[in-house]
Amino acid sequence: MNIKITGTGSYIPDTIEKNDAFHAHTFLNTDGSAINYPNNVIIEKFQAITGIAERRYAKDHHNSSDLGFFAAEKAIADAKIDPETIDYIIVAHNFGDVKHNTIQSDMLPSLATRIKHSLRIKNPKCIAYDILFGCPGWIEGIIQANAFIKAGIAKRCLVIGTETLSRVVDKHDRDAMIFSDGAGATIIEATEDEGGILAHETASYTYDEAYYLHFGNSNNPTLSKNTRYIKMEGRKIYEFALNHVPQAIKTCIDNSGLNIKDVKKIFIHQANEKMDEAILKRLYRLYRTDIPENIMPMSIQTLGNSSVATVPTLLDLVRNNKLENHNLSKGDVVIFASVGAGMHINAIVYKY
């Protein structure tokens, strides 16, 4: 028995927010002081570092659970399965449903419960629950589904990553330009086909790193302290990722019994273009080998950082030949890897 992804689906919102839309923002430092650069310079530097030229925002009447439902429908159709046969629905997110123009997260009932309800699944033995694991949440959901199937308590799982980060950003924080909305979903199940999950690796660094990402006050001190926003220690996260993610990926590859030269694609969480490129360089430096051309698909330039949704969305795009110079064939070995709030890192070696 092997455990494979048999269906993928993604929901990429239609609303495009280009960098030009931020020219009217009043960006401030964390202490509330003015930034001594005009917005055009701030935005140019931002794009040079992150690679982001535009991002996607959900329609006003859609919430995270809606986006997850749309992606789930596509994954179920792609896998050609009866949704009543799903044993687990695992939904990774960070902030629940945050309705447009509100300030409160809504996580009761769970997003997984809401998505199961929207899918009209009657089977009470289909267990629906959420995981809060930062940006690596979808990958961790796949690892949990893999464990359930290996243990014999499930045969088929639906794993979703969905988020509307545009609704929890501080418009006075330059990091507001990073975040976006979207959802990705996958069906994972036991199969007699060759391949599937060959190895996985997860770690949680909390001693010094727990609050590198957190909910905090606006950079504008005149705004209410009762409203909180997503906040990042950008430089610390960058250094953390470079110090830990390449080694985690290497450990995962080594445990799979394969070599880096066997890998066709590396799907890394779309957090920052320069950071992902640096992670890739350090990984290949560990193996003392050159980086192959077109090894790392990227979507951050046009989709931004949608947290838990970036990796499954990227997978769906490549699987459906929607990214130039990127495709997958049977037998290809790929890596899934992420880093995010917690601070958590994880990786999977997977063979198609």
Computed structural class: alpha/beta
Strand content: 15-25%
Strand arrangement, major sheet: 1-7-6-4-5
**N- to C-terminal separation?**
14 Å
User: What is the approximate shape?
Assistant: globular
- What is the H-and-E element order? EEHEHEHEHEEEEEHEHHHEE
Number of separate strands:
13
- Rg computed from alpha carbons, rounded to a whole number of angstroms: 20 Å
Per DSSP, the total helix count is: 8
Helix content: 25-40%
State mean pLDDT (0 to 100 scale).
Answer: 96
Biggest β-sheet: count, sense, barrel?
5 strands, mixed
Regions with pLDDT < 50 over 5+ consecutive residues?
A: none
Can you tell me about this structure?
Helix 2 (64-79) crosses helix 3 and helix 5 (234-256) packs parallel to helix 6. The strands form 4 sheets. A 5-stranded mixed β-sheet has the order 1-7-6-4-5, with helices on both faces. The protein has a 4-stranded mixed β-sheet with strand order 8-13-12-11, with helices on both faces. Strands 2-3 form a two-stranded antiparallel sheet. The protein has helices at 39-50, 64-79, 111-118, 137-151, 234-256, 273-286, 300-303, 310-319, and strands at residues 2-11, 15-18, 54-57, 88-92, 127-131, 156-164, 181-191, 196-204, 213-216, 229-232, 263-268, 333-340, 344-351. The model has no long low-confidence stretch (mean pLDDT 96). By secondary structure, it is α/β, with parallel strands linked by helices. The relative contact order is 0.19. The protein is 29% helix and 25% strand.
